[in-house]
């Protein structure tokens, strides 16, 4: 069985993680990360749980537009990032910004510019900001990929306007991108016209109803949480970076669910999504890294007797406090260590399940959608992600549960190392 996983399943998962489109999606979301942090910072300052009302009002007047300029229009950044990173994957680094613009314009071309106000008045010439955020995420990704691929297709065919050598390079590149961009955007425009005419609805509504909503329902479920945690931990056990393999597949769904929570939070409405990108990062990774090993490191230092584990614990405590745990994964080791398999895989799953049901039962508030860096230490990250001290308390409870699951297995490892120390 071990040979099957090592020789068949693990290489297959590694190949999946290297698929071009998954890499492009991962890098596109990472391009948007700095902007989302600023937007999240703005939301946090405007909603500090124990701040005086005067301070909150001041922060709102200063940072009130921070969310609308970043998180609320996340689809714009992702579309731009898809075009740029797809161009780089195809070897068109010099024209990546043109292909990024093609993807962005393609998305805007299929986005309705008519809005019906609450009064019933129809207003033309404006984008509904909700279409540029969570609601438009999937249509944005699909159209961005199509637009960028069409642009690259024309580039590969060599259809371009070549300018004389004396023309400045910037001007020459603009003309070189003209035909690919015109071709791509024309196809997208015609495609949008045909689909909306035949189906009687705009592309945003169609994709949201028939694709995005069902995928979000499945991807945000408890079952999806369990499968995700199992795959991540299982792959790490064989030495493959589980997050690098799984995250590109789940990030679009979890980011969209998180943005929905953020939209509800900023509007003062009830949040409905438990398993979001913030949940994935704060209530799994931010407890000492993958596998929630901060408590394991502390047990090495204070409860184990072997010099090996004590030394490893002291070495790993610094990085572990900021959720970097490669010293544990490769030093304990976790990789291919039969004693570590059960606590490593199932301890994480049980702890994540407890966090899920703590939120489902209303004991802990749901994540607000605010992006918190995964390196933020335990307790602080939990409070910031939920805007409640209960988020931090939940992380501590999770850590204790992981510790209870790990303890007997760690003691067995400790005994082995003690025997070696005596030799």
From TrEMBL:
InterPro entries xref list: PTS_EIIC, PTS_EIIC_3, PTS_IIC_cello, PTS_Sugar-EIIC/EIIB
Signal sequence segment: none
GO molecular function annotations of the record: protein-N(PI)-phosphohistidine-sugar phosphotransferase activity
Domain of life of the organism encoding this protein: Bacteria
Subcellular location per the Swiss-Prot or TrEMBL entry: Cell membrane
Record-level GO BP terms: carbohydrate derivative transport; phosphoenolpyruvate-dependent sugar phosphotransferase system
Membrane topology qualifier: Multi-pass membrane protein
Entry's Gene Ontology cellular component terms: plasma membrane
Record keywords: Cell membrane, Membrane, Sugar transport, Transmembrane, Transmembrane helix, Transport
Pfam families: PTS_EIIC
Transmembrane parts of this sequence: 21-48, 68-86, 98-117, 129-154, 175-195, 215-238, 282-303, 341-359, 366-386, 392-410
PTS EIIC type-3 domain location: 5-409
PANTHER family documented for this protein: PTHR33989, PTS SYSTEM N,N'-DIACETYLCHITOBIOSE-SPECIFIC EIIC COMPONENT
Role, per record: The phosphoenolpyruvate-dependent sugar phosphotransferase system (PTS), a major carbohydrate active -transport system, catalyzes the phosphorylation of incoming sugar substrates concomitant with their translocation across the cell membrane.
Name the UniProt record assigns to this protein: Permease IIC component
Organism for this UniProt entry: Clostridium neonatale
Taxonomy of the source species: Bacteria, Bacillati, Bacillota, Clostridia, Eubacteriales
